[in-house]
Prior knowledge:
The complex is a heterotrimer of chains A (448), B (333) and C (287). Chain B is mainly alpha-helical.
Amino acid sequence: MIKTFPYGGTHPPDNKLTADGKIVYPPLPSSVSIPLLQHAGIPAISVVTKGDKVLTGQLIAKAGGFISANIHSSVSGVVTKIDKVTDSSGYKQESIIIEVTGDEWKDTIDRDPAIRREIILSGEEILNRCLESGIVGLGGAAFPTHVKLKVPAGKKCDLLIINGVECEPYLTSDHRMMLEKGEEIITGILIMMKALNVSRAMIGIENNKPDTIEHLGKLCKEISEITVHPLKVKYPQGGEKQLIKALINREVPSGGLPIDVGVVVQNAGTAFAVYEAVQKNKPLIERVVTITGKSLASPSNYMVRIGTLVSDLIKAAGGLPENTGKIINGGPMMGKAVTTADVPVVKATSGIVILKKEESLRRPVGPCIRCGKCNTVCALKLEPYLLMALTRKDLTERAETERITDCCECGSCSYICPAARPLLDYIRLGKSQVLQMKRERTLEKNKA
Amino acid sequence: MSNVLNISPAPHIFAKDTTRSLMLDVIIALSPALIASIYYFGYGAIIVTLTSVVSCLVFEYLIQRFVLKGPVTITDGSAVVTGLLLAFNLPSNMPVFIIIIGSIVSIGIAKMTFGGLGNNPFNPALVGRVFLLISFPVQMTSWPVPSGFNTGYSDAVTGATPLALVKEGLKNGESVSDLMHQVPSHMQMFYGHMGGSMGEVAAAALILGLIYMLIRKTITWHIPVAVLGSIAAFTAILWLINPDKNADPMFHLLTGGVMLGAIFMATDYVTSPMSYKGMIIFGVGIGVLTVIIRVFGAYPEGISFAILIMNAFVPLMNKYIKPVRFGEEVSNG
Amino acid sequence: MSSTVLMTIISLTLLGLLSSVILYFIAQKFQVFEDPRIDEIQAILPAANCGGCGFAGCRNFAEALVKADTMDGLNCPVGGSGTMTAAARILGKEPVPADPMVAVLLCNGTPGNRPRTSKYDGASDCRITHNLYAGETDCAFGCVSHGDCVKVCSFDAMYMDNRTGLPVIIDEKCVACGLCVKACPRKIIELRKKAKKDRKLYVACANKDKGGPARRACKVACIACNKCLNVCEFGAIKIENNLAYIDALKCTFCRKCVSVCPTESILELNFPPPKAKAEVREATVNA
């Protein structure tokens, strides 16, 4: 039987318009804008100044702490400005702006396309290389990979899970990567296995991508440590907790991390980035971005330099359609709507979805008819209607005991609600308030 | 910038189901039973249904427009469902003015006083029915005998329901096996050929509606199965203990409002629990209470009271019956 | 029949007597001594339980007053100095005068001043919008217009002006409890000292961006040009984070700063001689 996670979940329409679109290299942009915070954690610290000449792959900002990541120039050119620039949320963010003069790569990077399978580096060296190369999780959360690949003291890891689920509608970047860069990804998995010192890895792929399952299955035939597992299509299977439950039936405890059940989950795209960093010494300066939307002339998968403006990519994909109502940075279930297309692609950008005007508006909110659909779709078995009510009444402590912080913000509850209630909007707010309350509590405890 | 983009928090796409489409599904699921009752009870059924639906809509409109002075939401379909269910719970020869009183009680008292759709603790249609049953016991318990489409509205021949017949007979010391000869056969009851409220008689049509709602995922199986299962189990025990004094489970399932109650009344979104566990407990509670009222109580039929009693427990169930959260009981295998 | 009635009356009376005796002794035994002054003070407090004093409710404030050595730092903004003097008299302590305050909104981003660059389509809650993005305009510091402050005001002292999209504070009703200040996710409501005739002079802007971007986002943004700082003779103006701030304690309402401000971000309200210019601006704020 094909596996999936046992409870909750929804089936938003797939709309994978670009599933057959080969990864294309768009023309180099005329300038890139590289934010200093593209990852989970603390912002990186700039190591260049205005007027500096930089090469492709050159370090331009150093990690600001343990949970942080290096940032490299994705083009060669001149630093014109280090200033606050509006990011995708409309707030200003420290960014480095580079005027592109060409594409001159740093000479330490091996640009030979031939695949190098032999892993020379030791586990420790692999971690260091990931840190140096600024590798972060490319699934969306952008958590620094070197942190994730380091098993904390006292914890044991016996399995690496590669997330090739891509359950978000529209997006196909992981799909195309696995199909076109399969061998590199397999090598990347072996590298990560070496770093984690585990002897088993599983690749989970939803069975709406039969070509990928077949392709990777063929590649893994010789390698007994890696197995490919087709999964039943169900959102949000790409969530770490759901994926672990689906594949090996282990439940990550509430408030815990996958490592608590001996698992590390990495995105398939990350495996490719790790391969390039370790085998080719190439830092994370480009990634695959799906530009898609029903109204777009030619939706495509692009290999994009970090810092390229989204508007440039949209131009390459046929230009912004007339009746655009919403531009989403990420997938339609968890992505962020942006106010303008002039925002840069960052390490966590897996796709840009363009919605037509008529698709982009929410329905008017009705009263809760207590149908309980939100409860039944919640993969974490929370009660979204209750969490929303508690947040609106500012009952933060009660919300905490109802485990509001377990919410993974997958959006299934808001998606399914027949009365179009903004469940997740309030749950997200409640979550931030509970976290704030917890922080204050620890502060007080430390004081006492 | 002329083209201003829309911004909202994620998610950005939504399922097709709306409150209105769910209500429409319920209405579609109710239509086989409506057709059956028109087939059995003639145009009296049409008059009762129309009166009930129209007056529910009118009262909802009047109250929202002139009393609450708020937005009018009669288009969401909930008033139509209430009107249909109320009609289904009435005999097909009901005088129009009583139906209108029932609608006022259903919409005005049971629904709007609590804040409208989503806030009423008790099923509005059932509140209306029980109010009428207590206020107009004669009209509410003189059921026309099904006699084809051409039956008149007010001159219909009336008779007792099988349930009332059996209850009365048992009180007079007759045995069940004798009484079974006086009531229609199980097969006839399954197709609805018996006296009763206009919508409750045709079990087959109601089950058709259930199947439709399950396929459309309008409701889950938990409540209907729990209600019917517990009624069957409880009456089976009684029947096995003393088959002379107690009717068989099939009889109990097919008579009275059990099918209508289990499939359409108990599963009302607003007045049923939101967790699967709660739904099962709710359903079993209804089943047990129904049988207790039927067998030991004064009324021949008890499902409406049972549902209303269990409705009162729903807030408690929602509060205390929680699903086991993901990762709460870690059993890693 | 009569004996039943008689028995009922006798037994109930006895039961009542017995209970009252038990209750009396329990009340004696478990009596908690409370300073009677707490009740006295609570009686003169406004009983709004708004929390403006920093305590959970009026009773807690009364307890704190009785317990405290001096009345320093304890003030009921709702009752004002009258209440505090009365409380001081009950306690036999020296009243510490506190200035009456009033809330003001540090934003004048009407649709005319601040062009809309996106349309928000989520839940109507300031905090949600604030956590999500900069807001419907390019100003990431100004009012997001969902009225969280109005929702929390328990004195009916605020309402949303649908034309400007900004909350309006009714001076006569505002008691400076500070609930709106806490509710605002952008921290753009300030409690300022109340002046004679409700006169107000303040910089109605919270934009910490540099002049250029601030001005681009909003016509009446403070661009930190220092002109007001230079013209002020009383040292009442300071500039921090690209934002001018007028200290209400030092300001003498000379209004020189108003005339030099190039972006008209300094608001003067409730001043008598209606200069043509001031009137127009008042209309945009108070209407």
